[in-house]
Give the backbone structure.
Amino acid sequence: MNAYDIIIRPIITEQSMADVADKKYVFQVAMGANKTEIKAAVEEIFGVKVSKVNTVRQIGKVKRTGAYPKGKRADIKKAIVTLTADSKTIEFFEGMV
């Protein structure tokens, strides 16, 4: 897998935008990616220094689509990436705060 296969998309929510001030960024990542692969991918794509990576697996909700059949949202894996204090910020998130 290359770096663009690991980092799928940024997650833009009120809570994730509040953490941008603390140099914490949230991304949806591939389900099979581990923390070291995520760290290397973020450093390669954005040219920053990562100090810590936390991951969360979010199980998809079961949704009703009438009587039958039940639907289900997709399972996703999120990564909360914390940058070092001397690292530059990610410019993608600058205009959204």
The chain has one domain: 3-85. The radius of gyration is 15 Å. The helical segments are 3-6, 14-18, 35-46. Residues 3-85 form a domain with the Alpha-Beta Plaits fold (CATH 3.30.70.330).
